[in-house]
Amino acid sequence: EKGTYPHYMLKEIDEQPLVMRKIIQAYQDENGELHIDQPIVGAMKEADRIYIVACGTSYHAGLVGKQFIEKSANIPVEVHVASEFSYNMPLLSEKPLFIFISQSGETADSRAVLVKVKELGHQSLTITNVAGSTLSREADHTLLLHAGPEIAVASTKAYTAQLAVLSILGHTAGKAIGVQQGFDLVHDLGIVATAMEALCDTKEEFEAIAKEYLATTRNCFFIGRSMDYFVGLEGALKLKEISYIQAEGFAGGELKHGTIALIEEGTPIIALATQEEVNLGIRGNVKEVVARGANPCIVSMKGLEDEEDRFVIPEVNPLLTPLISVIPLQLISYYAALHRDCDVDKPRNLAKSVTVE
Ligand code: F6R
């Protein structure tokens, strides 16, 4: 039930801090250490390469998950869109592990890949919100998201739950493999939950940004580098599916190779600047589009902020920034759709779970 909330989407955005705490609890052992069942850690240890397969928002979570697993566990990871993988299968390594990311666990495109993977005799793990779903039943292993039912068509809390579980998977496997982790993930995910709360408490800021930048625009670009690029892809998907504004996410450095031709006087550009090593680079990209008339909205992280920024998110472990930088984008999309009189929870042409290929 959505209770006093006008829309499920807003309720589900607000639930994210609680979901973080539930996930931390669900994956802690009696000593408070993060724990993932031995058969799954064993499958990670044995794999010479991981193939993440997913669609839509879950695919975007996979792009971030690749960074978590490669950085924490030192295992190479490829991320594939399920509908492409089925018909254009890459050369596989000798001991692959397949990870299916699916909120519903019922997505037909991902199921089709799992059928093929099983025929080939490879190990599989499903990360899903729905225990007993098809992808969970058919894979060798399952990790649950513990996000509670997600009703709004636009996925929000499932995305951040997927990121949290992927971070725990990478961290736990890394430890088992003997990779030095260098930080306490339980502690840092707790900080993420608190930062999420702070962001959910400043909704009027994001409503103001939506009104200022997106009330009448035809299009909008999201730019970022490294982790911020992947979050920008998710921000663009959120905005386009519920507000019908043509929105695209780009790697900051890639704009000048073509897309910058689309920048006109007043084109909104939402730029994420949460990564220290690319902070100068993304700010340079913002200057390039501003010189062509763009209307920039920079969302940065505390410690990296500049006077020109429109919003500064609280500081968290740099690896975990996607978990909180996505929240302003979810809320901006929500308010853009609301003020453009769109059906927020049930956008046109879309279904909650896509059970046809
Ligand atoms: C976007 C959205 C979709 C789903 C995609 C995969 O907000 O919800 O892009 O992420 O259809 O669905 P699952 O995760 O259920 O496999």
TrEMBL record:
<dbReference type="GO" id="GO:0006047">
    <property type="term" value="P:UDP-N-acetylglucosamine metabolic process"/>
</dbReference>
<feature type="domain" description="SIS">
    <location>
        <begin position="209"/>
        <end position="347"/>
    </location>
</feature>
<protein>
    <recommendedName>
        <fullName>Glutamine--fructose-6-phosphate aminotransferase [isomerizing]</fullName>
        <ecNumber>2.6.1.16</ecNumber>
    </recommendedName>
</protein>
<keyword id="KW-0808">Transferase</keyword>
<dbReference type="GO" id="GO:0006487">
    <property type="term" value="P:protein N-linked glycosylation"/>
</dbReference>
<keyword id="KW-0032">Aminotransferase</keyword>
<dbReference type="GO" id="GO:0006002">
    <property type="term" value="P:fructose 6-phosphate metabolic process"/>
</dbReference>
<keyword id="KW-0315">Glutamine amidotransferase</keyword>
<dbReference type="GO" id="GO:0097367">
    <property type="term" value="F:carbohydrate derivative binding"/>
</dbReference>
<feature type="domain" description="SIS">
    <location>
        <begin position="40"/>
        <end position="183"/>
    </location>
</feature>
<comment type="subunit">
    <text>Homodimer.</text>
</comment>
<feature type="active site" description="For Fru-6P isomerization activity">
    <location>
        <position position="352"/>
    </location>
</feature>
<keyword id="KW-0963">Cytoplasm</keyword>
<dbReference type="GO" id="GO:0005975">
    <property type="term" value="P:carbohydrate metabolic process"/>
</dbReference>
<dbReference type="GO" id="GO:0004360">
    <property type="term" value="F:glutamine-fructose-6-phosphate transaminase (isomerizing) activity"/>
</dbReference>
<dbReference type="GO" id="GO:0005829">
    <property type="term" value="C:cytosol"/>
</dbReference>
<keyword id="KW-0677">Repeat</keyword>
<comment type="function">
    <text>Catalyzes the first step in hexosamine metabolism, converting fructose-6P into glucosamine-6P using glutamine as a nitrogen source.</text>
</comment>
